[in-house]
Fold:
Amino acid sequence: MLNRVTLADVAKKANVSTATVSRVIANSSLISKETKKKVQKVIDNLNYVPNSMAQSLTRNSSKIIGIVLNSKDIDPLSNNFFSEILSGISDYLIKKDYYTLYIHCNNSETEEEYIKSLVGSRRLDGLIFLRAYDDEKLLKYLENIQFPFSIIGTPNDTSEYIWVDNDNTKTTYTITKKLIEQNKKKNICFVGGPMNLKVTNYRYKGYVKALKEKNISKEYIIESLFNIDTAYDIIREYLRNNRKIDAIVTTDDVLAIASIKACKSLNKRNVIVTGFNNTYLKKTSNYNFTTVDIKVKELGKKACELLIQKIENRLMKKNYAIIEANILWEE
Amino acid sequence: MLNRVTLADVAKKANVSTATVSRVIANSSLISKETKKKVQKVIDNLNYVPNSMAQSLTRNSSKIIGIVLNSKDIDPLSNNFFSEILSGISDYLIKKDYYTLYIHCNNSETEEEYIKSLVGSRRLDGLIFLRAYDDEKLLKYLENIQFPFSIIGTPNDTSEYIWVDNDNTKTTYTITKKLIEQNKKKNICFVGGPMNLKVTNYRYKGYVKALKEKNISKEYIIESLFNIDTAYDIIREYLRNNRKIDAIVTTDDVLAIASIKACKSLNKRNVIVTGFNNTYLKKTSNYNFTTVDIKVKELGKKACELLIQKIENRLMKKNYAIIEANILWEE
DNA sequence: TTGAAAGCGCTAACAT
DNA sequence: ATGTTAGCGCTTTCAA
Structure:
């Protein structure tokens, strides 16, 4: 391979010491303008690029951030989220001169060990966990050895870790409230994804809060998988048995689309359906309905920002961030 | 941070030289069983993990492979491809003890320089380019400095570079031929994505080949964006003006779905439509049609395999691989 | 402002 | 089979 130019080569050619060259590439202030210029010229001429491995070794920092994905993040349903967040993260890291290491270990049994050894090997300066990461043991371990990481999602222990999320309860609350106040709906159905997902629960809470506030006691609740056919069947059946329902608040566009289709098939014309996540599915469908832009890129960016502040010891008291979601009202 | 154990610490505690410890972690053969066991015990006790930066420096290899994505790969349409290929690549690399660096530079003007400096910094052992990468200058540069890389897609210069792709022409040929032979179709329309995409052209060629072979002279060709609404409008209009069309071969499921919808709206019942790429969109739709599993994971895996062979100087004469696509026949 | 030199943690050639 | 030692390419302390 070409280009085996080292710092020593530059030093020799420029008639200075290696320390001086090092100072030039580090943009040190204790160096004269002329020397700097002279050395820079040689660097350019020789096409010198510092060996990052040597730098990492002496600086004890790799400038690499690992993004930990679990299989849920990779399934087709999350694709949109997945690629957007990765690109949000990467965009920010590039600007800050960091690199993005993609970490996905198929085998969840070995994942913990894999990450531990990765951290132990000093290959990484920090980690970002996607979604509320469920391996509490690993998080505790990292916290214990004081290895910097941030979480996208709300962790169980919100005070200890660095994390970034939307206020999902608030968003669903706002949507539900509007259905009641402005659209005069009274029989509102909540269609959520699996209840073992935290995010489903947060969104459910917002729905409940709005009902409570407006003294509506009747709750209609459907739990479904994020599969359009399954959702359609469940919702349709439910609607057949609960004819009074006049609005449907869902936790994802795929559920909203299933709901709309179910309503159509039952000839229920005046049911208002709302979605969530502003997905590609919605964009490619012909249906118009209220949905929520959860600002995926922002989530990724902020998670990086806090993490890097932590790494560089600039983190202030506040170790979390709430990203304001944007409700895209329809009608 | 805890765990600052070094190889020297292990050596001291085990009463051996650093070389011996190094041999143990490298699993060298010239070491006795007992010493190995003894040293391993100390390693486990002290929880020693080798410093990868020091290793990289001495071995002159980072064990990191960079995956270069361009914006096309990241847009929502390609999500499925994108996340699948990334996971296919990562799965394979993990097994081979390599790491996956995600490289996406939003700014295409600086991308070339970014990658050059990345390569110059010795941070990477190799690169994988997604889709036929169009920066020929960069590829030439890398080839010139003998930096290992592989391409997913068919490059202009198929003999020089390492690459992996499906035989798209063959697949469309097979599909079109079957429509003619078995389904007795004679007026077959080709609906392709943008013609500036190589893949569109390859697939088009297969369509043409089948027609030629069967002495069908009439070609019907539609070029469309991968947007379901746009495609629908274009296709519907075209079908209205070409009423004889009795089959539609497309280059993507989104075009197939648009075609099916267009046929429905025109009450054309007997038109057979085929898709491509076996996308999430198809899986979540209720339409049944022939599509093609292009074996995305296989593509990623093979690209890694060839690349690593190259890196480790084990590459034989054949520098490319054709991954057999799987046509998922419907009916 | 600059240079000399020690050292980061490891590998590998050479010696035993 | 094991140890000694000279690097790998850089940063940084200390001295000038």
